[in-house]
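Inputs:
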Amino acid sequence: MEGHLNLTLKIWRQKNANVAGKFETYQVSGISTDMSFLEMIDVLNNRLIEEGDDPIAFDHDCREGICGMCSMYINGRPHGPNRGVTTCQLHMRSFQDGETITVEPWRASAFPVIKDLVVNRSAFDRIIAAGGFVSVNTGNAQDANNLPIPKEDADDAFAAAACIGCGACVAACKNASAMLFTSAKISQLALLPQGKVEAAKRAEAMVAQMDEEGFGACSNTGACEAECPKGISLENIARMNREFFSATFSSK
Amino acid sequence: MAWLAKSLNSSLGKKLLMAITGLFLISFLLIHCGLNATIFLNDGGVTFNEGAEFMAHNPIIRTMEIVLFGGLLLHIFDGLRLWFDNKKKRPVAYAVVDGAANSKWYSRSMGLLGTLLLLFLIIHLKHFWYFSRLTNNLTEAHTLYNEMQVVFESPIVVAIYVLGCISLGYHLLHGFQSAFQTIGWNHPKYTPTIKAIGAIYSIIIAAAFAAMPIAFYFNLIQ
């Protein structure tokens, strides 16, 4: 049943990457419990615009839970209190009337703040560009049945490929480590015959780029897996470790 | 060998060093605990002293003692390096962190637990390793067992040892299964078993070690 909430919002405001940010407190009232968290911010932004203030900058695209743009750290957790969802799929019914909600951007030296709650995640793009691809000759596509792939392998590869690159793993990790992301991207290719050819080179290049970007090391706390909106498994990190260390001894 | 140094200096390599040295220290703890547990035979330390005597003079054990110190130093050095490296990765801290929602406190506190263990270890080495290896105080009349009786007369020392054992228990509870994850052993077939063995191992080791000073202090063993 629909209800209405009065909330206190503490939201991180920061002009750009070069200046220090700070929290601003806003009161919002009459928020429908059926709204998504992003719609609640839309309501606040409309008011800020009407009042002649600078609206809160935040990333959003699909609002269907699959784009992963909404880099909001809500009450101490990426994407807020619910598991397996992005911020657009977090609804205001998950909050209590009168609650104070703290909203911060992802915090990592590798994810500099562009403005307010918007962070620059191009470090992820550079990790992909370092090796997250399969080199193929152009020409006609070969017959689909030329490459038999066991169902289990296809399922595992698909589960790894579900990663939307939102960065919640980095945000949740106490070391701001990108291992869950990188391992998912290494795994989705390493599990398939098309990806095996370049597996050693890929593991080395992507891990090197990940370190270069300034992400931390893994403490195996499992926070990334718990906060991942797509349920990417820690098994991928173990697989990346196997791929990387075997590449250490086998790559040319 | 530049390729190996490069690999071990990567974020994954540093973790591999932690895992391998950690598993080595885990194997040492089992021997250390097993040998010390002979005090519970309540034979006035006869079996324990025989064991200590063997460990002190066997050339293989003495060589392994050097390897052990090397492994321990590597574990400490690499752990501190990771701790300081990782701290730099989030220059602006979160105002609110709900860590309990997604992970165990001891998995997030390995650096702190390790530092407590290092402080404990300095005290512990001073008590027994320094006494037995670097001084001539060890005699027929005053055995290592007698020295344990003397050291554990102090309630403060007993309290420090018990706290050290609690830190060790939690450090192992995360470290044991974490080491296997780092070396790449994560599989539905054996990961549950590794986690179960890790938990049992951590509890038994911590409880058995903690029981030793307590038993001496309350004169439960002669």
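The domain at 4-115 of chain A is CATH 3.10.20.30 (Ubiquitin-like (UB roll)). Flag for discussion at group meeting.
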